[in-house]
């Protein structure tokens, strides 16, 4: 049993690493620089914690739980040098160890994000936007945000993009794509996150967004694929999760293929999983390469439903196949 677990752990370690590398190759560039956000010094970080502390009693009625959260926050000596968003994620991870009620947790996070948005509105001057300006329509807003997912960005910027997508989804109410992209942005942020203890919190939010998307478009191949990526991001936090979450990720990819047999991204991810799985576990490099070649054929024939539909992965599949062929020589 121990030997079997070691083999499975080895398989999934290679797969998770490969998938995380694949994030960096996807159509939305996940290779970001950290120099576009100003980290907080010790004084500013302390002021932020104190501000959140003062607001806790308004969000949590139980005084004992408020005290428990405050005690955890007081133990932090690692906040200086981090950005505001990174600090919020760390502090929220502490809150989750004390508060189990999802409604309360959602309320706390929403209040923190609303406060952050209000702060930015007070400090950022946007003279180009006049009071009489007409709001952009749904397609224009989405096109702009999808374009913004390209290029070099920090994790904080991906998180803000996620919030913007979510805001559009909540306003539109009938479209699944805003929630899809909001979840995907958080997956990219999780890949960049150095503090692994905040990844689960990010993926909890991603799962919530995907649930909203799923309620608007059931049995959607693209949604199930992002759910698989979310599951793999969780696996990267703790190797002991591999034996439990690995089969779940595999099942989600297979469901993605079944829901849309012409979705090339599903076969691309299946190829990655198969390539790094030993032959005696129904995988192997030859099978992986064959699946990737099939994915490329599907990429060649694929036509997105509209200009906002997911359409990433082809260039990365071409690159991956070239690398695998090079290594097999």
**Mean pLDDT figure:** 82
Computed structural class: mainly alpha
Order of helices and strands: HHHHHHHHHHHHHH
Query: What's the total count of β strands?
Result: 0
Number of helices: 14
- Indicate the percent of residues in helices: 55-70%
Question: Rg to the nearest angstrom?
Answer: 21 Å
Kindly estimate the percentage of residues that lie in beta strands according to DSSP. under 5%
> What is the rounded distance between the termini?
35 Å
List low-pLDDT spans.
23-36, 120-134
Describe the main β-sheet briefly: none
| Global shape | globular
Question: What does this 3D model show about the protein?
Answer:
Helix content is 69%, strand content 0%. It has 329 residues and is mostly helical. Helix 1 (2-23) crosses helix 10 (221-235) and helix 8 packs parallel to helix 10. It is globular, with a radius of gyration of 21 Å. Mean pLDDT is 82; it is low at 23-36 and 120-134.
Could you give the topology of this structure?
Layout: H1 2-23, H2 42-59, H3 63-74, H4 84-98, H5 102-123, H6 138-148, H7 155-172, H8 177-192, H9 199-216, H10 221-235, H11 242-259, H12 264-275, H13 285-301, H14 314-327
Helix pairs in contact: 1-10, 2-3, 3-4, 6-7, 7-8, 8-9, 8-10, 9-10, 10-11, 11-12, 12-13, 13-14
């Amino acid at each position: 049993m121990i030997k079997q677990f070691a083999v499975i752990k080895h398989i999934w370690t290679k797969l998770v690493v490969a998938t995380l590398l694949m994030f960096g190759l996807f159509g939305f560039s996940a290779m970001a620089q950290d120099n576009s956000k100003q980290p907080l010094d010790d004084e500013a970080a302390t002021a932020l914690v104190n501000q959140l502390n003062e607001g806790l009693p308004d969000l949590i009625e139980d005084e004992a739980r408020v005290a428990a959260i405050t005690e955890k926050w007081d133990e932090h000596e690692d906040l200086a040098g981090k950005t505001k968003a990174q600090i919020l994620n760390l502090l929220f991870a502490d809150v989750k160890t004390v508060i189990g009620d999802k409604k309360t947790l959602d309320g706390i996070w929403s209040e923190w994000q609303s406060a952050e948005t209000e702060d930015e509105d007070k400090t950022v001057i946007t003279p180009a936007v006049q009071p009489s300006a007409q709001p952009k329509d749904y397609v224009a807003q989405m096109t702009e945000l999808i374009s913004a997912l390209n290029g070099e960005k920090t994790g904080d910027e991906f998180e803000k993009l996620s919030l913007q997508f979510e805001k559009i989804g909540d306003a539109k109410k009938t479209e699944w794509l805003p929630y899809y992209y909001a979840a995907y942005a958080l997956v990219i942020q999780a890949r960049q996150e150095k503090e692994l203890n905040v990844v689960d919190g990010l993926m909890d939010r991603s799962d919530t967004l995907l649930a909203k998307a799923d309620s608007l478009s059931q049995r959607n191949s693209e949604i199930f694929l992002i759910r698989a990526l979310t599951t793999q991001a969780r696996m990267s936090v703790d190797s002991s999760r591999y034996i439990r979450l690995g089969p779940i990720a595999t099942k989600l990819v297979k469901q993605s293929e079944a829901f849309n047999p012409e979705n090339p991204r599903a076969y691309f991810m299946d190829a990655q999983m198969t390539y790094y799985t030993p032959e005696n576990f129904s995988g192997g490099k030859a099978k992986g390469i064959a699946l990737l070649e099939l994915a490329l054929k599907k990429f060649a024939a694929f036509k997105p439903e509209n200009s906002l539909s997911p359409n990433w992965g082809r260039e990365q599949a071409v690159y991956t196949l070239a690398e695998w062929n090079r290594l097999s020589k």
